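Colleagues,

For the teaching module next term, I've prepared a clean inverse folding example: a structure given as tokens, and then the sequence designed for it. I'd like students to try predicting residues themselves before seeing the answer, so please don't circulate the second half yet.
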């Protein structure tokens, strides 16, 4: 599984908003400068986050974006699923019900199901707040599933 630039940048944008939430609405220009991301690229990510009510928007002079909820209400899994689609390592696990014609005789299916469970358990148990809290420690591999 490889996370695209869109997924990585969306996570960085959400973290930037979480870190700076006390500043009110944050402009895309400020986020772009702090994160070293093109403002144009962020403009492509905003509608995705907005459509799922992850962000609040304010137009005008003091306009910008902020999180709709507190940082502890967003998991990395939520953000990546929104931007990447499925996190499944193989196509047959993309749907809620596996429709692969080889499912009954597939010897590798349990391997892929286990990997998918490990991925989702891990990413669904890390919130934006967890990342902010652990940033100073730089110990991102200490999460327990």
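(Answer key — instructors only)
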């Amino acid at each position: 599984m490889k996370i695209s630039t869109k997924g990585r940048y969306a996570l960085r944008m959400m973290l930037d908003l979480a870190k700076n939430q006390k500043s009110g609405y944050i402009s895309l220009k400020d986020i772009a400068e702090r994160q070293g991301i093109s403002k144009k690229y962020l403009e492509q990510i905003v509608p995705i986050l907005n459509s799922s009510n992850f962000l609040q928007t304010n137009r005008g002079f003091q306009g910008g974006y902020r999180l709709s909820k507190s940082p502890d209400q967003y998991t990395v899994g939520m953000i990546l699923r929104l931007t990447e689609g499925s996190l499944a390592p193989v196509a047959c696990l993309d749907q809620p019900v596996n429709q692969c014609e080889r499912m009954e005789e597939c010897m590798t299916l349990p391997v892929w199901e286990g990997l998918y469970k490990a991925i989702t358990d891990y990413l669904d148990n890390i919130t934006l707040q967890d990342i902010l809290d652990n940033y100073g420690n730089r110990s991102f591999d200490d999460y327990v599933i």
